[in-house]
Write a structure and sequence with these properties.
2 domains, 6-stranded parallel beta sheet, 10 helices, 330 residues, Rossmann fold, 37% helix, globular, alpha/beta
Length: 330
């Protein structure tokens, strides 16, 4: 299988360099039968387009051209955005369950490692049972800080509210903040992973990489099918947020087993040696669900548009509220 990553539309130098580095490193470990193809894209079996074209928070939804419009059904998107519409067939980090169709979409990791400080931390370094550090990017996160603060003050957890770090990742001045974030993960046995702006977060994958137990608090997040989530993660309904300390405490004795499984699953699926085989396997899963010669313009299923339109309206309203609040804060 020849896979071509087309970075021609990536305008952000940091993102482009980071993706090139990860793709190049993965190519060194490519298994037999799978290769990164740097020649003529039209000669590749599949083309990965890592630049999102259709997002609910901005831009046109059906007229914005992407590589799929030029090269057809051999092109798959790799969309890391918070508000994807799911129009393109391919891989998504944060496509909500209501728009997700396994015949058209696959849940996958980010192609960029945003925080290179993350590493496999020794299990014994964890001094707290649970923890979370991050900014308030959703009402659920605001509830998390307010409800879990008493338990954190008692010493059971490590809770730290920060400024938004995501958009500062490309700035070297953010290096101390990245280090502090990694330290928060290192010091916790279980790391709470709530949804942020989108239903997913890069935190999910960083916690796996660090060898800690992720506690998933996002009802709409579709977990990547390639991972054995039951072996390493705890999935807690958002309605049980106030009971998180009690729920996590009930799994205290499972920490070492889940931490080892988390790192093992990251190595198997998303490490330099695991990324391309996993990607190829997910491409084959998509290939078996539809004939490329007869693909429709939109995801299959009549309910797609019925679900998409309310999602667009809700996301646009949230974006408007954020802009208004930002103006007030100034």
């Amino acid at each position: 299988m020849k896979i071509h990553f087309d970075l021609s539309r990536e305008a952000n130098p940091y993102n482009r360099t980071a993706m090139e580095e990860r793709i190049t490193e993965s190519a060194r470990h490519a298994p037999v039968g799978v290769q990164i193809f740097d020649g003529d894209p039209d000669a590749a079996d599949w083309i990965i387009d890592p630049v999102p074209a259709h997002h609910a928070s901005c831009g046109p939804y059906f007229s914005d051209p992407g590589l799929a419009d030029k090269r057809g059904s051999k092109t798959l998107t790799s969309d890391p955005g918070d508000f994807p519409t799911g129009r393109r067939r391919g891989f998504y980090c944060s496509l909500p369950r209501t728009l997700f169709d396994p015949r058209w979409h696959r849940s996958f990791c980010f192609l960029i490692r945003y925080n290179p400080v993350i590493a496999p931390f020794p299990p014994g370094d964890a001094t707290h049972l649970w923890g979370f550090s991050g900014s308030v990017t959703s009402p659920r996160r605001a509830r998390l800080f307010s409800r879990l603060a008493p338990s954190a003050r008692d010493g059971a957890g490590r809770l730290r509210q920060t400024a938004s770090l995501f958009h500062a990742m490309t700035d070297p001045a953010s290096d101390p903040a990245k280090q502090a974030f990694a330290e928060d993960i290192r010091r916790c046995q279980f790391v709470i992973c709530p949804r942020g702006n989108g239903v997913s977060s890069v935190r999910f994958f960083e916690v796996l990489e660090a060898g800690r137990g992720p506690v998933i608090l996002s009802d709409s997040f579709v977990l990547p099918a390639c991972l054995d989530w039951d072996s390493c993660a705890l999935r807690v309904p958002e309605s049980d947020l106030p009971r998180l300390p009690v729920i996590i405490a009930a799994h205290r004795e499972e920490y070492h087993r889940r931490a080892e499984a988390a790192r093992r699953e990251w190595e198997r699926c998303f490490s330099p040696s695991g990324l391309l085989p996993t990607l190829a396997g997910e491409i084959r899963a998509l290939e078996t669900t539809s004939d490329r010669s007869t693909l429709p313009m939109l995801p299959p299923g009549a309910r797609y548009l019925v679900r998409l339109l309310p999602f667009l309206a809700k996301t646009r309203l949230k974006a408007l509220v954020r802009r208004v609040r930002s103006g007030w804060n100034r």
